[in-house]
Write a structure and sequence with these properties.
This protein is an alpha+beta fold. The protein has 15 helices and 16 strands. The two termini are 48 Å apart.
């Protein structure tokens, strides 16, 4: 029987790890610079949390969640998005009484049963950012700046924001009624999903990717004509901040989020030259979500970005991450006494932080040196019968071919000096 990975999942192989390490290090550096703290909610939560927090009429809840009953007959769901779980964590663990704003980030898997496509899988890893407790448009800018800085430092070019405001509970209802009235006149021409959204989640009508539906949405009413003074001022201030920083953006009246909790600002970061899937992340403000989950009214804003999507974008823009550090020393050995000395030497080198490898099995010196060259190590330490008699080892620089004989107690100090010299050059 041949087992295969489940459709919509993928294996991350060693040759891809340099992308993951580069992205993760960049995330850690930027979140630290911006003053964010890491949290990790569990991979599964009560299903009711997502029904309440994400919205029962969303595509995620209706079609995409991995839900199951445990042995206690409790309905549980694998995390389909981060924000609801982070809000539950925020309320349960007393972060709601911490000084505001509370700035959090997470990295981990999310699960959605949707059609797999380039950069999108049924299990993928998401970098997630949340800021809670502050209504100031400068916080919107702060969150957007984390995303911008991340992609800029990863090496992406052609960055720009897509920006919109979806209003608030005071001004959005009137707009939704006008939007529904417009779509009722096109009801026969829209797709089946949009017919369902028309009654249950009208804002998502603007986000449909079906060509005929996009043509219809192009003539739909624009929410900016219905924003209340507060929402209009918030959006104008955010735009002023973006203009001040000279961050390119485009107002996209069709940009909405697929989750019920979004209010006011919604945004995406787009990258030029990476095909049709040019959105690297999506997010926005959700000022009513904490209250919806049983907490006190608390403004919030965040975004999520898939790491697999970042890697795909890096490859499409020919961004090559740094290679992972190679082992520094390889110990080649033949004979029982040399075997024991190799094990001792390897342990001594690793204890002081030097990456060292040795060969296993009864392989010839020639085969062992081929392995050392394949691994790209800097130095080989050679131990054989003659070396064991003389209590010395032959140390070879694999870049220059130069070699010298050293006493056993000279090997570790020399490797320390050579490691420091290599670190300075890099």
């Amino acid at each position: 029987m041949k087992y295969q990975s489940i459709k919509g999942t993928r294996d991350v192989l060693p040759q891809e790890q340099k992308y993951w390490r580069f992205i993760e290090k960049t995330i850690f550096r930027i979140t630290e610079r911006f003053g964010f703290e890491r949290v990790e909610p569990p991979i599964f939560e009560e299903t009711a949390l997502f029904l309440r927090g994400v919205g029962e009429t969303t595509d995620i809840v209706e079609k995409e969640m991995y839900t199951f009953f445990d042995k206690g007959d409790n309905s549980l769901t694998l995390r389909p998005e981060y924000t609801a779980g982070v809000m539950r964590l925020y309320l349960q663990n007393g972060l709601h009484v911490a000084p505001k704003p509370v700035k959090l980030y997470s990295i981990g898997p999310i699960f959605r049963y949707e059609r797999p496509q380039a950069g999108r899988f049924r299990q993928h890893t998401q970098f997630n950012v949340e800021v809670l407790g502050e209504q100031d448009p400068a916080v919107d800018l702060e969150v957007m700046s984390v995303a911008w800085q991340l992609y800029a430092e990863l090496g992406f070019s052609g960055l720009a924001f897509q920006l919109n405001s979806t209003g608030c509970p005071h001004c959005r209802p009137a707009y939704i009624e006008q939007l529904k009235e417009y779509y009722y006149h096109h009801q026969e021409a829209i797709c089946g999903d949009c017919k369902r959204r028309l009654e249950r989640n009208p804002l998502r009508l603007l986000d449909c990717k079906v060509e005929t539906c996009q043509e219809i949405s192009a003539g739909a009413p624009v929410i900016h004509n219905h924003l209340c003074i507060e929402c209009r001022d918030h959006f104008a201030t955010l735009r002023l901040y973006l203009d001040t920083l000279k961050r390119p953006y485009r107002i996209n009246h069709r940009l909405v989020r697929g989750l019920d909790y979004y209010t006011k600002t919604v945004f995406e970061v787009w990258v030029e030259g990476i095909g049709s899937q040019n959105a690297m992340c999506g997010g926005g403000r959700y000022d009513g979500l904490i209250e919806q989950l049983g907490g006190k009214p608390t403004p919030g804003i965040g975004f999520g970005s898939g790491i697999e999507r970042m890697i795909l974008g890096m490859r499409e823009q020919n961004i090559e991450p740094p290679e992972l550090l190679r082992p520094f020393v390889f110990v080649a050995h033949i004979g029982q006494a040399a075997d024991l000395k190799a094990i001792e030497l390897i342990a001594d080198l690793r204890d002081i932080g030097i990456a060292a490898l040795m060969s296993f099995g009864n392989r010839s010196f020639k085969a062992q040196m081929r392995e050392a060259n394949r691994l790209g190590v800097d130095y080989a330490v050679i131990l054989g019968d003659e070396e064991m008699v003389n209590q010395t080892a032959t140390v070879k620089n694999l870049s220059t071919g130069e070699q010298q004989s050293l006493l056993f107690d000279q090997i570790v100090p020399m490797m320390i000096r050579m490691q420091k010299h290599t670190d300075k050059k890099s």
